[in-house]
Amino acid sequence: MELDIGPHLHEDELEQYSMGTLSAERIGPFEEHFMACAACQDQLLEMEAYVNAVRSVSPTLRQAIRQPRRAVRSWQVWAGMAASIATIFLIGRLWLGAPATGPSAVVVLQATRGIEGLSTAAASAGRPISLQIDPTELLASLSYRLEIVDSAGTSVSAGDAISQGGQIVQTLPKGLPAGKYYVRLYSASGELLREYGLQVR
């Protein structure tokens, strides 16, 4: 035997019930119908899922959510979501693509001997770096070649280094991403002279 549960609940009543603003005299009849009507239960679940999805997209849409659902057109929601995503994308592009500014951080690379291995210098990620090497104990040369490899041995930078003020200097205007690196110093003929550790944070 099928129960006569009457007409389906109105969308306004479902919304008021969801928000806790349905009048006390309507709650009894509302819940009688609601408990027996799968269609109205599904409609309320859809309405709450919709509101939660819009709330999670952007705080700028919260004002629109406070209005009755029928007043928020689907194109308005999608336009708000698209605007939020575009803004986040633009900020990300500007932040990631912005050239490093400020003076170069001077990083002095030193060779060490012993069981502890390489002495590791430190630098800041994404900031200009000026690498300096003391050429003491190296064969004097007018030019050197410097290569920087990551922890996997992949070359990330290579170029000629100049001797300046008694130091071998190489400047990296864009700096390096965070990670562990090895700086290799070669003679003009390609002979590996020294290797230094560099930690970028």
Describe the protein.
The protein is α+β, with helices and mostly antiparallel strands and 201 residues long. The protein has two domains: 11-97, no CATH class; 105-200, Immunoglobulin-like (Sandwich), CATH 2.60.40. The protein is 35% helix and 28% strand. It has five helices and eight strands, in the order αααααββββββββ. The protein has helices at residues 11-19, 24-36, 38-57, 62-66, 74-97, and strands spanning 105-109, 120-123, 129-133, 143-150, 155-164, 167-172, 179-187, 192-200. The chain has an eight-stranded mixed β-sheet, with no helix packed on it. β7 and β8 form a beta hairpin. α1 (11-19) crosses α3. Mean pLDDT is 75; it is low at 113-117.
Give the topology.
Layout: H1 11-19, H2 24-36, H3 38-57, H4 62-66, H5 74-97, E1 105-109, E2 120-123, E3 129-133, E4 143-150, E5 155-164, E6 167-172, E7 179-187, E8 192-200
Parallel strand pairs: 1-3, 2-8
Antiparallel strand pairs: 3-6, 4-5, 4-7, 5-6, 7-8
Helix pairs in contact: 1-3
